[in-house]
């Protein structure tokens, strides 16, 4: 039974006193059984939260009660339970960690709707599609023909643009990320670097797969919550793009190695993760510094 909902949202907006909002927000969420992760900064808000359908409706009313957020776009998903164990509210310098503080959002790529992206593919338009997420995210799922840079974190985006994407300055380019927040700045940086025809996928992968599963998205979507991955497709050939590190079977699942000193992300099917005690190697399995509680 799907009695819960998950919300994904962000908004770039100048906030006068993010510290007070963050404080009030945490108290409100604890009192109203909302769990998740919400970041406030003077440049805006970025969050993912879960709760019962009723509590989530209250949450939306609460957040949109601030004039800053009255028109915020909540992307919603149904769920059977909370997607988080706790509520974290943090005050940050930026709502996405990165190296693009000097980039103007005004330069952002043109917004491309899921419908228009489908049209690009169907019309066989000459375009380049680029994954603006980290390597481990694109490893388990990506758009058809996407370029997937080997990025460890978003701070490497400038380097990726300079090293890997420089040849595409005159091409039509589409960037995408999970919910759209990264692309606001990632695409703006490309425009500022002289890329001529830049689009950003509106609402990110999340918005696309909700509307058009079994089309041009291949594999699972990595999420930073208890679900770990969302599998939108039902067509066999579009279910998985990754293979289990241990047995080679197609899967979209992954674990963090339970040797705390390793913590490596490895793609693993459910059978192999149990068989290998949630560890990537014999060495890690024998480590004295293993997580006490299985996670993933
Ligand atoms: Zn396996
Ligand atoms: Zn390991």
Question: What are the defining features of this structure?
Answer:
alpha/beta; five-stranded mixed β-sheet; four-stranded parallel β-sheet; binds zinc ion; 17 strands; 296 residues; 10 helices
Sum this structure up briefly.
The protein is of the alpha/beta class and 296 residues long. The chain has 10 helices and 17 strands. It is globular, with a radius of gyration of 20 Å.
Detailed description of the structure:
- With 296 residues, this protein is of the alpha/beta class.
- 28% of the residues lie in helices and 25% in strands.
- The protein contains 10 helices and 17 strands.
- It has helices spanning 18-31, 53-64, 114-122, 135-140, 157-164, 181-192, 204-211, 236-239, 270-275, 282-285, and strands spanning 4-12, 35-41, 44-52, 75-79, 87-91, 110-112, 127-131, 141-143, 172-176, 197-201, 217-219, 221-222, 229-230, 242-243, 250-251, 254-256, 265-267.
- Strands 4-1-3-2-5 form a 5-stranded mixed β-sheet, with helices on both faces.
- Residues 244, 246-247, 249, 268-269, 271-272 line the site of one zinc ion (ZN).
- The site of one zinc ion has 8 residues, from loops.
